[in-house]
């Protein structure tokens, strides 16, 4: 089911801005996607503040230390490097993880946390588990769905097991690569030969923004590509290369019930593939919130996005990415905390449903409050135990 429309309130009907709890926006984080997260998080905080919400921006630095920034903080064109030293921007901090959680737990009224962290720590279930431990509402997928969505190998196994189309791949652990480089390369040669194309896409299994990702055009490039991917993770993927593939994206909003799907949008890379440079260099690539597709393909992309979203138990919001090649659609990956940068497609595709950028942010907060209100209480009494 697909529904559309501007942000309904989490309790049915429109919730007045003054009725929302404080919104804490987390960004930065100890991952290679730190800089992208700063752009996303500050954009989210500024959009919600401009709509009248009470917002508290919180920077997490590369060491995992938390800093409370001024409530009216605006990036104002600062480069992400300006956030390298939280002390120059913060009004409170530094806080260890434990101290930060204590501070959040003591906030009255209890806040809702908007997680704008990309990559490991923020998108893989770690910070979600921390917030679960203090019973604070937070945006997006829960612990298990976040972990599945972040791990491209596990995600592919799950969705292929349910019959969704994915490109063939092989998995290489850092341990195996270190001990048997010749054996790994021989397997990849056989894999590429069976696919009829020497090219392979090689990437870290648990990272985003195309960091550590490369096309190995010939056999001699596979070893260096694996070395680079395994700088960022202990597991790498080598995927079958899909020639002339179009890169499509579908935005999904919703919890366990009705879902809203928007798109597909399309990315036209200014480089050989949509790598980090192509993604974040202004003007290098082009995006369209409405890809030119046959109606049947458009409907199929939305259905597959819905299926992938439900397969991992995603909630709140996500972006599902596809490759279209040879008349077929392949599910590529799911991003449970997609980008909210000026060039990100996720927050622009829902415009077809009447959403502004701030409206998407508000809807994500509504869904977080809805999910939190419907959860089973973890506050047990002695008499609740099965004794």
Brief synopsis:
With 387 residues, the chain is of the alpha+beta class. The chain has helices at residues 34-50, 97-106, 126-133, 143-150, 152-161, 174-179, 181-195, 222-229, 276-280, 295-311, 357-373; strands spanning 23-28, 55-60, 66-68, 92-95, 112-115, 137-138, 169-173, 200-204, 214-216, 235-240, 246-254, 260-268, 286-288, 316-325, 328-335.
Overview of the structural elements:
With 387 residues, the protein is of the alpha+beta class. The chain has 3 domains: 17-139, Rossmann fold (3-Layer(aba) Sandwich); 150-164 and 243-372, 2-Layer Sandwich (D-amino Acid Aminotransferase, Chain A, domain 1), CATH 3.30.470; 169-240, ATP-grasp fold, A domain (Dna Ligase, domain 1, 2-Layer Sandwich), CATH 3.30.1490. Helices cover 31% and strands 21% of the residues. It has 11 helices and 15 strands. The chain has helices at 34-50, 97-106, 126-133, 143-150, 152-161, 174-179, 181-195, 222-229, 276-280, 295-311, 357-373; strands at residues 23-28, 55-60, 66-68, 92-95, 112-115, 137-138, 169-173, 200-204, 214-216, 235-240, 246-254, 260-268, 286-288, 316-325, 328-335. A 6-stranded mixed β-sheet has the order 4-3-2-1-5-6, with helices on both faces. A 5-stranded antiparallel β-sheet has the order 13-12-11-14-15. Strands 7-10-8-9 form a 4-stranded antiparallel β-sheet. Strand 11 (246-254) and strand 12 form a beta hairpin. Helix 1 (34-50) crosses helix 11. The N and C termini lie far apart (43 Å). Mean pLDDT is 91; it is low at 1-13.
């Amino acid at each position: 089911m697909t529904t559309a429309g501007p942000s309904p309130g989490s309790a049915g009907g429109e919730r007045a801005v003054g009725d929302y709890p404080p919104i804490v926006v987390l960004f930065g984080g100890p991952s290679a996607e730190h800089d992208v997260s700063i752009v996303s998080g500050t954009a989210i905080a500024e959009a919600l503040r401009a709509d009248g919400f009470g917002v508290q921006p919180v920077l997490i630095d590369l060491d995992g230390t938390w800093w409370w920034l001024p409530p009216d903080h605006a990036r104002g064109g600062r480069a992400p490097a300006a956030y390298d030293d939280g002390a120059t921007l913060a009004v409170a901090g530094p806080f260890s993880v434990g101290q930060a959680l204590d501070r959040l737990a003591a906030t009255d009224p209890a806040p809702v946390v908007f997680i704008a962290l990309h990559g490991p720590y923020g998108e893989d279930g770690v910070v979600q588990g921390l917030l679960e431990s203090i019973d604070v509402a937070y945006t997006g997928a829960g612990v298990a769905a976040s972990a599945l969505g972040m791990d491209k190998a596990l995600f592919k196994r799950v969705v292929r097991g349910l019959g969704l189309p994915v490109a063939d791949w092989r998995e290489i652990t850092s341990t195996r690569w270190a001990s048997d480089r010749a054996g790994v390369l021989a397997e990849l040669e056989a894999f590429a030969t069976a696919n009829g194309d020497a090219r392979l896409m090689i990437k870290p299994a648990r990272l985003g923004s195309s960091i550590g990702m490369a096309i190995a055009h010939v056999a001699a490039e596979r070893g260096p590509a694996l070395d680079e991917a395994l700088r960022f993770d202990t597991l790498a993927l080598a995927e079958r290369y899909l020639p002339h593939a179009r890169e499509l994206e579908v935005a999904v909003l919703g919890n366990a019930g009705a879902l809203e799907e928007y798109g597909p949008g399309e990315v036209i890379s200014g480089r050989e593939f949509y790598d980090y440079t192509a993604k974040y260099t202004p003007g290098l690539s082009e995006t369209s919130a409405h890809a030119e597709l046959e109606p049947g393909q458009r409907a199929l992309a939305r259905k597959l996005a819905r299926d992938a979203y439900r397969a991992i138990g995603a909630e709140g919001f996500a972006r599902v990415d596809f490759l279209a090649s040879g008349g077929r659609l392949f599910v590529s990956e799911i991003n449970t905390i997609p980008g909210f940068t000026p060039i990100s497609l996720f927050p622009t595709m829902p415009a077809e449903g009447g959403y502004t950028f701030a409206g998407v942010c508000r809807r994500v907060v509504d869904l977080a409050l809805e999910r939190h209100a419907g959860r089973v209480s973890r506050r047990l009494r002695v008499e609740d135990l099965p004794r």
